[in-house]
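Forwarding these from the shared drive since the link keeps breaking.
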Amino acid sequence: MKWSKLIRGINVVAFSCMTVAVLLPEIVEARLRVVATTTILADTVQQIGHDKVAVRSLMGSNPHHYKIRTEDIRHLSQAHLVIYNGLSIENGLRRVLSQLPKNVYIIDVSDCLPKKNLRSSHQFDDHHSHSHPENSCGYHYDPHFWLNVNHWMVVVRQIEKSLKVIDSNQAHFYHMSSNKYLGQLNELDQYIRSQSEKIPVNLRFLVTSHNALGYFGQAYGFETDGLMGTEGEETSIANLRRLSYKIMDQKLTTIFWDNTTSRKSMQALQESILAKGHKVSLAGPILVGGVLDSRQTLQNCDKHNHSTYDGMMRHNVDTILVHLTPQQGRR
């Protein structure tokens, strides 16, 4: 693969969601070096770029507990393209990202979503304090927008545009690949909706260890709550008590643990509810922080490929369906 015409100096590229100044690379490479902060972003870049890109992710399946390593700084500095989620996910990387060489093209995919589509703290109360910066209006945004497939489809287009800017000779390839992937995601969205509709409306209540399913709930008709906040921060005794009584008042019979937190925290919640005489089962995991490494496996594994965004989302809705549909029984 050849790069597009090498350009020296600053090239200002206007996107629909932002304007970025970028110094295009001056070295002909076999593949674009792309660093994505989350595994979901890395999978999405791979789905669009295929063999035209060499993708590395930094954070694993639990971005909230990520700590930067020296080798990560090296990979970021040597990348042609760095893609990050934005909002509060990469708080620990803000300084590093701001100091990368000018020839590294950087995009924040959250910038492409209209603010009206983001969940802000004045719209929900997760009963936790937060360490991440607030916006000028005095509230923060929930960063888990990838759990609404329609939001993620917007991100796909932004990644396509970024790849085309850096590697214009392959623009048609990226466009066709993106179109194909968007068709797959449209099918995924319809699958989640059809599976969700099989669950009675009065049972569509998701209590998880990490309050990350707000976008999923908005898109697919579920009420959501969590033991820990949107950043996965530790819960308080008061919140554990609040959630215990809410589960009993709502007569919920299943709660879920997710792959970003220890199962033990939800077991403690389950035990406190059982001690009060209310029967509740614990199911999971729900995959919320990222796709799994291809070498990782899940107990009671379903048919889906958990190392892809598509497989992650299908696993989630199928897990929810099994445990919230009465005739399916309980584990």
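-- next protein --
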Amino acid sequence: MTRRICILYTGGTIGMEQGERGWRPAPSFAALTDRLHPGLRNGAEVREYSPLLDSANAGPEVWYRLGRDIRALAADYDGFVVIYGTDTLCYVAASLSFQLAGTGIPVAVTGAMVPMVAEGSDGGANLGLALKTVTAMADGPAAQHGVSVCFNGRVIHGARARKLMAHDMDAMRDAAALLDGQPRPQTAVAAPGRASLPAVAETAPVPTVALLTLHPGIGLHADSLFAVPPQGLIVECFGSGTGPTADAGLVRLLHRLRDGGTVMVAVSQCLHGAIAFDTYEAGAAFADAGVIAGGHMTREAALTKLHLALSLGLGRDVLAEDWVGEM
């Protein structure tokens, strides 16, 4: 059975052309693919976004537009391949994992480190893997449907992917595999208590979500941070959830943000390990300030999950629960 696959081309390195100031996104991805890799699309339809973007310039508005478009087109296609730039590809993959949880829509996200038109490009191989993966998901049981990142021969859970290399073809890795040697299986588990989450409306207010990376001495200038408290904050802690909490400046900051209504989620700066505030005394202050322990979540998963929860007006309690295997 031939599956109906839709390729959503947002831009990124894979389809770029050389411009006067460097590589830039270029249109006509279907024609480019057919010229360089005849037969690769195998009937998959390409829908191009406008304007095309370098993923460095793509944010939540693009994540949510993709989520809305995939839902709107789901009745016409068996699966979707999202073409995205690699710099923030793991953010969009995580966001789509949460947005589409429980919908049963197969999605593969891919891109390239080298443009298709350049010698030695990985674009054709990555696109081929994504098309093969999303077709296999569509042919398989619904429990295996979800969002995957397809890159350099790897199929990675969408909410566990991280870009670890700036130039290497093997740039994307599974954070769970880095943790225990085993890739985490894909899952279509829905958010707690819901068959699926509603789409984020185009007119929905955009919440302010910030990232705070702790470092030795941060308390010396903590009082000057976040004069206007953000609605959400990802706190990147040391190790298993510690920080320089003996410094009164950092503790004052956390309590000021909590009292200002900021929802805070902690993740580890380490690639291996999970947040557990009860392990060390230096971590207890985060729990006292109301910071939510993010478990094994990556920075990308935590930020996009928090952003989505705030966009939909979900309670803070759901952030401590596992939605799609990200924790």
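The chain has eight helices and 14 strands. Confidence is low (pLDDT under 50) at residues 185-194.

- D.
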